[in-house]
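Researcher: Sequence of Radical SAM/CxCxxxxC motif protein YfkAB follows. Predict its structure.
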Amino acid sequence: MIQAEQKKSLSPVWDPWDPWYTRSEKGRYELTSVEFTVTQLCNLRCEHCAVGEMLVQEEGTFLPVDRLIRRLDEVESLQTISITGGEPVLNPQVVRDMIRPLLRYARSRGLYTQINSNLTLPLSRYEDWIEDVDVLHISYNYRDAADFHRIAFEKNGRDVSPAAAEALFNRMVDNAKALSRAGVFVSAETLLSPFTAPYVAGMHRDVSEMGCRRHEVHPLYPSDFAKGMELISLDTYRNTILELLDKRDPSVWILFGTLPFYPCSDEAADRECWLRLHREKNVTVRHDPDGRNRLNINTFTGDVFVTDFGEVPSLGNVERDRLDAVFQRWLERPEAKRLHCFCPAARCTGPNILVADAYYSNWDFQQRQAGVILSSS
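Model: Prediction complete. Tokens:
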């Protein structure tokens, strides 16, 4: 096993999930992050879920965790492990036989860890392993319990009472506050949609009041349950994030992920937005990890993907393929070559595949030139 190294604290100047660091320092993309889909169970059926069509009512049989860890041991460049679902904490067997061994391995090797949870389960379900997690990632797309009731059970297929939904919503908020007070790095994500965009400043206040250290803001990904949802226009998106910057709590780190604006835009407003985001304190733009430094493993089939959602087919399988070999295979694919442009002067590594297809289907990113330059500072 590769020996652990001293870990730097997470901050706006160090986000190990961001592929920018490796690409800018080494001149190439490198596999530094592996994400595991450890369950296809979930107690919610959110309308915006990008993996909703893969959710099931009965858990399948996952691969032995030792087999997965052997593959991780082959990746010398590995820095982070992420755990997602479904709701990873819902099945105690998954926690015992998959999550905790992966977290122990990561701790022994000095890797950064993230787990994605809706945080609606009893607090005791988190307390005995949460100290091994660097980032507890939650979704927050609600103004109140009524919003939660509609959004979280939109695709449920059976009635859930408002009182039951309110109890889960309150538990999520209370859990976030309790874990934040205990020193857990809670990062809340909001997806910008026609419903959330008008209220994102209020949601940001809620995130701050829950004690979350970071608020992530992402586009709505048009995948699975969300495929039929309306995407907001780029003008609305830009105005929304500028309003958020004006009204934000400056003590909360805001991370704009898979941002649908680029320094090579023909629109002056987009270029000005890019500049402001890179000048604001405690604000970062995370470059898309999927395929630039991260692969996803389905722990039931062993299939390896460039992302846990979207339509790029499996690139390999852990039963027969090394992960670094799978990653190199992806870099040679036409999709990667089309999107993996790089502009160090503007600090840009190009678009997310879903965002590019949704908003910029007629752009050739490899032929565009940045219209802004960021200072070296």
